[in-house]
Amino acid sequence: MKLIAVTIIACILLIGFSDLASGCACECQPCGPGGKACGGCPEKVQLCQQLIGDIRNLQQKIRKCVCGEPQWMI
Description:
2 helices
């Protein structure tokens, strides 16, 4: 589970840095993982915490509803 979360965060950071490195002839400012948060999006730390929580909740729901594990095992 921790490996999945770390992998997702690493991918987000790599995508953000690669977008910044590619450069742009337009006047728009980059936003997202490599820069400031885009409009309507939380800051990086809050977003990562929220996504990790979503992954944990989804994993618990899968274990309970799909795999049939009792609540005390989760």
